[in-house]
Design goal:
The protein has 267 residues and is mainly alpha-helical. It has 14 helices and 4 strands. Helix 4 runs parallel beside helix 9 (189-203) and helix 8 packs across helix 11. It is globular and about 50 Å long. The mean pLDDT is 96. The structure holds glutathione (GSH). The site of glutathione (GSH) has 13 residues, from helix 1 and helix 4.
């Protein structure tokens, strides 16, 4: 049976679990505690040298990168049914798979500038925080994390994230005017690629980023939540008390975030 190394609340893991649930595939899961640093275990790093989740091992094949894993699963076990059949929609879907990397970086900034930052500043000393930052392998990512902890929503990485989210939301709003799903008339890989990132913002009480300006995103998210796969891939891994504290932590930043977002929308 295929084996998935994943994090219960990790966005990229949700992407793979959503694909598995949509196709109806069984897997053996190993949960990594990313706060504890399980991803740095040398045995795990032999599979995933960047020390990130998810990693899928299927019949000896080791796969990393959530969007590529999703596409592999669809092609191998689902006759490619999650990829649209017209060239135009396939090209659009592939672009969303790529753009999910930008969405990932943006959501990482929004999470670490708010809920994660609040928790870390409350529970760790300056030395402990620096120790955690130093464990990050990529030096640029390390600088980013330091800046987010230091400046919160005033970080330049948040400005960058909001600019990228504006572009993503504009394109989602436009495409969802023509079709129910980002993948076209049928739910597919483009929707899977973006789902965890929009869901995370929603869970952080940041739905104000689209509710006034890009309302079709709210409708799309509601339709996503209605799919049976959503409960399996998302809800089942997020305990109720954690969901409540995430929402509360993010919502505390809503007034400040609104000011930054208005200036991005005005550009
Ligand atoms: N582009 C990669 C990103 C992987 C990634 O950054 N995963 C995060 C969780 S969503 C992680 O493992 N973080 C661990 C860490 O930052 O130490 C993918 O989509 O698979």
């Amino acid at each position: 049976m295929m084996k998935l190394y994943h994090g219960p609340t990790s966005v990229c893991s949700q992407k793979v679990r959503l694909t598995l649930a949509e196709i109806g595939l069984d897997y053996e899961g190993t949960e990594l505690n990313l706060q504890r640093g399980d991803q740095f275990d040398p045995d795990y790093m032999r599979l995933n040298p960047e020390a990130v989740v998810p990693t899928l091992v299927d019949a000896g094949l080791v796969l990393v990168e959530s969007s590529l894993i999703a596409e592999y699963l669809d092609k191998t076990y689902n006759k490619g049914r999650l990829m649209p059949q017209t060239l135009a929609l396939e090209a659009r879907t592939r672009l969303w798979l790529l753009r999910s990397l930008t969405a990932h970086a943006a959501i990482n900034s929004m999470s670490f500038a708010t809920a994660m930052r609040d928790r870390v500043l409350k529970t760790k000393s300056a030395e402990e925080i620096e120790e955690m930052v130093l464990r990050i392998l990529d030096p640029v990512h390390r600088d980013k994390r330091r800046d987010l902890y230091e400046h919160g929503l005033a970080s330049v990485y948040v400005t960058q994230a909001l600019r990228h989210l504006r572009r993503i939301f504009d394109d989602m709003q436009e495409q969802l005017a023509a079709d129910t799903w980002l993948s076209g008339p049928k739910f597919g890989l483009a929707d899977i690629a973006l789902a965890p990132y929009v869901d995370r913002l929603d869970r952080l009480g940041m739905d104000g980023l689209w509710s006034g300006s890009h309302p079709r995103i709210g409708d799309w998210l509601a339709a996503l939540k209605d799919r049976p796969s959503y409960a399996v891939a998302f809800d089942a891994f997020i305990p109720e008390d954690m969901a409540a504290s995430q929402r509360q932590a993010g919502a505390a930043h809503a007034p400040e975030l609104r000011v930054y977002w208005q200036s991005i929308l005005a550009q």
